[in-house]
Write a structure and sequence with these properties.
The complex is a heterodimer of chains A (160) and B (187). Chain A has 160 residues and is mainly α. Chain A contains 8 helices and no strands. By secondary structure, chain B is mainly alpha-helical. The N and C termini of chain B lie far apart (87 Å). In chain B, 12% of the residues are buried. The chains are: A mainly alpha (160), B mainly alpha (187).
Chain lengths: 160, 187
C-alpha cells in the first residue's frame, strides 16, 4: 500500500509547465507513475511534509470551528497558495462542524491568495477540488454569485 | 467604569481564578472577555479573529472574524438545523442567507473599488484653487505698488546697460546674445 506521505500531485510550479506543454488533463493515477522520481528532490520533500502536516491537522476528526479558522488564518498569512489537498481537507473539516459559510469564505480567500496568477492556478485548484465540492454539495463563490460584489455597503469608518 | 462592569460579571463567573490568571498573563488585551461578550450580544464566538478579541471585521488579511455577523435567531436558526444535514439539499438562496449570517461582506465586496479617489483628487484641487485665490487677494489688497526703481522705463534701460557692461551670463544667457564688436544685440 502506498504510504500517503508520498504525495504524488506535482508542485504548482510544475503543473504550470505541464498544462502548457500538454493539453490533456492528467488523472492522478497516471501522474503517480510519472512523478515518482521528481518527488525525491529535497525541495519537494519539504513541501510534501508541509502539506501532509496541514492536511493531517484538518483531517482530525475532533477538530472544531475555532481551530479550522485559526489554521486557515495561519495558512493564508504565509506567502503561498495552499495545495488543493489542504483546501479539500479544510472543506471536509467544515462539513464535520456543520459550517457552510466557512467553506465559501475559504474558497474566496484561496482565490485571492492566487493574486496575479489566478488565471493559471485557480482552474487547477477547481479541477482538483471538484470531487470534494460535488461530494459535499459546496458551491463555488462564482456559482453563488459572489465573484462580483452583490451588496454595496458603506465603509463603517465613513459613517459619522 | 468598564472594570466595575467586569468585576460585577466576574462574581458570577465560576472559574474566577482562571479568568484572572488569563488576564494577568495576556497583558492589555482590550476589554475583558465578559465585557466583550456583553458588547456582541447573542452572536456566537467562532474563532480567534485578528487579535483574540471578540469583534467582527471584514479584512482580506484576516478573513475569519472571531464572531458571526448575525445572531442565530429566526430564519437563521432554522437554517442552522438544515445545515447539519446534507448540503446538497439546501438551495442556493439558503446558502447565501447562511453566508450573510456569518459574514457581512464577501471578500470581493471588501476589495471592490469605492471611487474614493475622485473625491480625494477633487478636494485636493479645490485646496489648490483656494491657495491661488489667496495669492490673488494678497496681490490685490495687501502688497504695495512696486517701487519706481523697477517699473520706470529709464531705470530699466540703465539697469540693462549695466548688465551688458558687467557681462552677465556671457556663455548661454543674457550677454551671449549681445554682439560686443558691433555694439548691439545679435540677430
Amino acid at each position: 500500500m502506498l504510504r500517503f506521505a508520498l504525495r504524488t500531485v506535482p508542485r504548482l510550479s510544475a503543473i504550470r509547465t505541464a498544462t502548457r506543454a500538454q493539453q490533456t488533463v492528467m488523472s492522478v493515477g497516471s501522474l503517480r507513475m510519472q512523478q515518482q522520481v521528481r518527488l525525491m528532490s529535497s525541495e519537494n520533500l519539504a513541501d510534501a511534509e508541509f502539506d501532509a502536516r496541514y492536511e493531517a491537522f484538518f483531517n482530525r476528526p475532533d477538530i472544531d470551528g475555532w481551530e479550522i479558522r485559526k489554521g486557515m488564518s495561519d495558512l493564508v498569512q504565509m506567502d503561498l497558495v495552499p495545495d488543493p489537498i489542504i483546501v479539500a481537507a479544510a472543506l471536509r473539516a467544515c462539513r464535520r462542524v456543520n459550517d457552510y459559510a466557512l467553506t465559501t469564505r475559504i474558497l474566496e480567500i484561496v482565490k485571492i491568495k492566487c493574486a496575479d496568477q489566478v488565471n493559471e492556478i485557480w482552474p487547477y485548484m477547481i479541477q482538483e477540488l471538484k470531487p470534494t465540492l460535488d461530494e459535499l454539495g459546496i458551491l463555488l463563490p462564482e456559482e453563488m454569485g459572489y465573484d462580483q460584489p452583490e451588496l454595496a455597503l458603506p465603509n463603517p469608518y465613513d459613517i459619522h | 467604569m468598564s472594570s466595575l462592569l467586569s468585576r460585577r460579571l466576574l462574581r458570577e463567573v465560576k472559574q474566577v481564578g482562571q479568568v484572572q490568571i488569563m488576564a494577568a498573563r495576556n497583558g492589555s488585551g482590550g476589554p475583558p472577555m465578559p465585557e466583550q461578550k456583553l458588547m456582541i450580544g447573542k452572536r456566537e464566538i467562532v474563532g480567534y479573529g485578528i487579535n483574540g478579541e471578540a469583534n467582527y471585521m471584514d479584512n482580506v488579511m484576516a478573513p475569519f472574524p472571531a464572531i458571526r455577523f448575525k445572531e442565530d435567531v429566526g430564519e437563521i436558526a432554522t437554517l442552522r438545523e438544515k445545515e447539519k444535514g446534507d448540503w446538497k439539499k439546501m438551495t442556493k438562496e439558503e446558502k447565501k442567507v447562511l453566508y450573510r449570517a456569518s459574514f457581512c461582506q464577501t471578500l470581493t465586496e471588501v476589495e471592490a473599488p469605492t471611487g474614493e479617489w475622485k473625491s480625494v483628487v477633487g478636494i485636493a484641487l479645490m485646496g489648490v484653487a483656494l491657495g491661488m485665490l489667496g495669492y490673488l487677494w494678497l496681490k490685490a489688497v495687501v502688497y504695495e505698488e512696486l517701487p519706481h526703481t523697477i517699473t520706470d522705463e529709464e531705470y530699466q534701460k540703465a539697469q540693462l546697460k549695466r548688465m551688458i557692461d558687467l557681462r552677465v551670463n556671457p556663455i548661454e544667457g543674457l550677454t551671449s546674445k549681445y554682439d560686443y564688436e558691433k555694439g548691439r544685440w545679435k540677430d
